[in-house]
Amino acid sequence: MNRKSTTPLLDKVQFPADLRLLPESDLAAFSEEVRRATIDAVSVTGGHLGSSLGVVELTVALHYIFDTPKDRIIWDVGHQAYPHKIVTGRRDRIKTLRQGGGLSGFTKRAESEYDPFGAAHSSTSISAGLGMAVARDLSGADNNVIAVIGDGSMSAGMAYEAMNNAGAIHSRLIVILNDNDMSIAPPVGAMSAYLARLSSGRTFLKLRDAGKSIVRHLPKGVDRALTRVVEHARTFVTGGTLFEEMGFYYVGPIDGHNLDHLLPVLKNVRDAHVGDPVLIHVVTKKGKGYAPAEAAADKYHGVNKFDVITGAQVKPKANAPSYTKVFGQALVKEGEKDDKIVAITAAMPSGTGIDYFQKAFPKRSFDVGIAEQHAVTFAAGLAAEGYKPFCAIYSTFLQRGYDQVVHDVAIQNLPVRFALDRAGLVGADGATHAGSFDVAYLGILPNFVIMAAADEVELVHMVATAAAHDSGPIALRYPRGDGVGLEMPQEGVPLEIGKGRVMRQGDKVAILSLGCRLAEALEAADLLAAQGISATVADARFAKPLDIELLHSLASNHEVLITIEEGSVGGFGSFVMQQLAEDGFLDKGLRMRSMVLPDVFLEQDKPELLYARAGLDAKGIVAKVFQALGRPVSEAKTA
């Protein structure tokens, strides 16, 4: 006997064209089926649940009203796009989200024509949308471009730069502000929905444009006075003055979960064909429709696999604390000893471990929002006044503040401490969140000290080292995930700047590791010993300054020197090779090799599988040694 489907409407819809065949009266029920499908999928894969549940009705309404993919929908960040993927031909693969070989956890151009712009960092949607709108105008096309951006993403300066430009260009662009934190608007109701529908209508917009044409012929003072009276009278009721001043026509706020409110407004904006950009302010609720998410403090923003009925997440018991937790707790201990230490994060207090410091020292903790550029220069200002700022930003996110790192920190030699979480490969979030480039992009800057922790104990000591270092900028990098299970010290002890350590002594091959590949290097040494090859293993600790004495010793006393790091070409290995070349060691027969991440963007998968694919595991090290020795790699019996 066939079981009755729990998603009869969703079963009829493979693409948005199918959705547009449904009567409007079915859309509320259809939305609930999409919501259930989203919950069911993320319970298996983990991922960004709360944000996706918050935009279910908005997703359905957008694809119902607009002619996608001809009309472009750009989801800022893209972590809320799971419902979008379900209704754009990817439902059959939705349970491969964030898995190796599966769907990306974000929008991705290569994945679907319904993803016109790939994203995973915030606040890019309006800029990209404006570029697409101008391209449309230059081509003489007539499609719509819609950028959906959250209120958190609106804290980034790039969003305002794009809006300022859009208001000046007067290109037809629709921006939907998804306000899911009630940070801008009060609760909305029937009256505000009615006003939004009225003010977004073609009649009102034509009257407004006609009025503008009339007042242009009046004296400038009268023109301005009348225009301000009209616009301020409207925005007094509906809000949006800031957006109006930037050249956007503001509509809202409206209830983003009420299709009776959403559909007519979207229709009006679609059909109005006004030249100016429009901003529709939509208020939604993160985690909407799933009680455990609605009750959670974080609204299930990012979750592991979970039980759908109870909401209980599957969290494997760790044998060691996470590096993020180790950093946070170590920083608290340093903060207890020195009241000049302050902590800064860019909207990621729990992701960077700053939440521990925030709880202990709320007045010395600063979450500046999604504004990495501001975070860096803000830290520089604190450092200039004698404070000791720890600027905790993911490696990949610090790229957004690179100009400020160069000009506001490095050139002025200000002692800002950069804590770079998510260094190396991160797993399910894929290439956009991998910390692949920080050693290379920071190492080329004068005045910088760069450390990389090999384990959780080293991280504690490096936090203490950064706290004690006051002569210029310093960075410490550490990965996502858990430590290796070492006994933790009571407190950190500052390391000598630029000094590494030898972990195992050999005589034929030297393996010089930076960061968390050290455990793999030690395992490789065991495998090599079984093959009769004696290997020294050293932990560089510092990518800059290099331990010259250690380098010279390794280069002088071994046939082969191999560096290994969790980063791109142009980083630690390049610095080592440059130094040894200048010092003449490459003229004397030394066989030098650098093991780095491959020159591709690695997609999502489990970190250990990604590192194996990149050749940066113990077997890969052994193979590299055999290659350097001129022996067939097939002889490397690593079993």
Return the structural class.
Answer: alpha/beta
- Strands of the largest sheet, in order across it? 7-6-8-9-11-10-15
Shape, principal axes of CA atoms: globular
What is the first-to-last residue Cα distance? 51 Å
What fraction strand? 5-15%
Uncertain runs:
182-188, 210-218, 224-238
Q: Mean pLDDT, rounded to whole units?
A: 89
Main sheet makeup: 7 strands, mixed
| Rg, Cα atoms, Å | 28 Å
Give the beta-strand count.
17
Helical fraction equals 40-55%
| H/I helix tally | 26
Description:
Strand 10, helix 21 and strand 11 (474-477) form a beta-alpha-beta unit. The chain is 41% helix and 13% strand. It has a seven-stranded mixed β-sheet with strand order 7-6-8-9-11-10-15, sandwiched between helices. A five-stranded parallel β-sheet has the order 1-2-3-5-4, sandwiched between helices. Mean pLDDT is 89; it is low at 182-188, 210-218 and 224-238. The longest helix has 19 residues, at 27-45. It is built from 26 helices and 17 strands. With 639 residues, it is an alpha/beta fold.
